[in-house]
UniProtKB/TrEMBL annotation:
<feature type="domain" description="HTH lacI-type">
    <location>
        <begin position="3"/>
        <end position="57"/>
    </location>
</feature>
<protein>
    <submittedName>
        <fullName>LacI family transcriptional regulator</fullName>
    </submittedName>
</protein>
<dbReference type="GO" id="GO:0000976">
    <property type="term" value="F:transcription cis-regulatory region binding"/>
</dbReference>
<dbReference type="InterPro" id="IPR046335">
    <property type="entry name" value="LacI/GalR-like_sensor"/>
</dbReference>
<keyword id="KW-0238">DNA-binding</keyword>
<dbReference type="Pfam" id="PF13377">
    <property type="entry name" value="Peripla_BP_3"/>
</dbReference>
<dbReference type="GO" id="GO:0003700">
    <property type="term" value="F:DNA-binding transcription factor activity"/>
</dbReference>
<dbReference type="Pfam" id="PF00356">
    <property type="entry name" value="LacI"/>
</dbReference>
<dbReference type="InterPro" id="IPR000843">
    <property type="entry name" value="HTH_LacI"/>
</dbReference>
<dbReference type="InterPro" id="IPR010982">
    <property type="entry name" value="Lambda_DNA-bd_dom_sf"/>
</dbReference>
<keyword id="KW-0804">Transcription</keyword>
<keyword id="KW-0805">Transcription regulation</keyword>
<dbReference type="InterPro" id="IPR028082">
    <property type="entry name" value="Peripla_BP_I"/>
</dbReference>
Length: 336
């Protein structure tokens, strides 16, 4: 027989409304009471009726996430899977669900967002990318629909956002290469429309300028966030630029392809060419040689994106409208 909230309340010697607040992690309920109620919930096998509760509250208890057109193979890229794990970890603690959508291009992204907003199936949306003159952000702001973005938006004071200091992180990568004797450092990055690419490129430029190294535009390439693009672009790069002694990439997947191309062309890593990644995916430490990369804590980004958005939905007073997640340069054997 199905356990009801009244039975849980009876066992806990509290009112049903107290049980409900405790399960929503309300700050009005003491930590001790929450723990006691959660123990009783587990013991009795009580499962809240989320659909009924959503109807009563006029809330779907669901957030939407649009996987970006810039990542055609989004779920192959470990960044996205780790980010989603972080989001769901927080949502589950708040009895929320996640609705995933994908898009093939920027126009389809906006169509998906419009449909999602009009369907009233979600209480808020998580946007995975920020572009210059971002139409998705403009639409959500115009319609006053709750959302949070991953990246540093143009209207940063008016929007909820989470990010790393991508400029600082790429500066540290490039500076480390320069300090170990590299002079001809190529840059393989994603679309220039994306703020994350622009910020990482700024860090690269900043390091070159600090050490008076002239920028060579012929070794700055715009590539897709995948292994194939890294492979093809590196082949093209090294066939026309024989003096390149290091390659920085804006994603580990690009670096994987780059390493394969370098080896096939007969170069040694890192003796002839150093290679660095970004995002510190699980495979980075198991490659041969192991890949120098930047830990961006993707799961923490997702966790805090969800936390920030739910806090705003509950009218919680926010100290800040953003959350910055720290990065760390992980030095391995693919660089000197």
């Amino acid at each position: 027989m199905k356990v009801t909230i009244k039975e849980v309340a009876k066992y806990a010697e509290v009112s049903p409304s107290t049980v409900s607040r405790a399960l929503k992690n309300s700050p009005l309920i003491s930590q001790g009471t929450k723990e006691r109620i959660n123990e009783i919930v587990k013991e009795l096998g009580y499962h809240p009726n989320e659909i009924a509760r959503s109807l009563a509250n006029k809330s779907s208890h669901t957030l939407g996430m649009i996987l970006p057109a810039s990542a055609e193979d989004s779920l192959i890229n470990p960044f996205f899977t780790q980010f989603i794990l972080g989001v769901t970890r927080y949502l589950e603690s708040q009895h929320y669900s996640l609705l995933l959508s994908s898009a093939k291009n920027e126009e389809e992204e906006l169509q998906q967002i419009t449909r999602t907003v009009n369907s009233k199936r979600v209480d808020g949306i998580i946007l995975m990318t920020v572009r210059e003159n971002d139409k998705n952000i403009e639409y959500l702001m115009e319609n006053k629909f709750p959302f949070v973005v991953v990246g540093n938006p143009k209207k940063r004071d008016e929007v909820l956002w989470v990010d790393n200091n991508n400029q600082k992180a790429m500066f540290e990568v490039t500076e480390e290469l320069i300090k170990t004797g590299h002079k001809k450092i190529a840059f393989l990055g994603g679309s220039k429309k994306l703020k994350v690419t622009k910020n990482r490129f700024k860090g690269y430029m900043e390091a070159l300028q600090k050490y008076n190294i002239q920028l060579d535009n012929t070794i700055v390439l715009e590539v897709g966030f995948c292994e194939k693009e890294g492979y093809l672009s590196t082949q093209k790069l090294l066939k026309s630029n024989k003096t390149v002694d290091a390659i920085v990439t804006t994603d580990d997947l690009i670096a994987y392809g780059s390493m394969r191309a370098v080896k096939e062309l007969g170069y040694r890593i890192p003796d002839d060419i150093s290679i660095t990644g970004f995002n510190n995916t699980v495979l980075a430490q198991y490659l041969f040689p192991s890949l120098t990369s930047v830990e961006i804590n993707s799961s923490e980004l997702g966790f805090n994106a969800a936390k920030l958005l739910l806090a705003s939905l509950s009218d919680e007073l926010l100290n800040e409208n953003f959350y910055m997640v720290k990065t760390q340069l992980i030095k391995r054997n693919s660089s000197k």
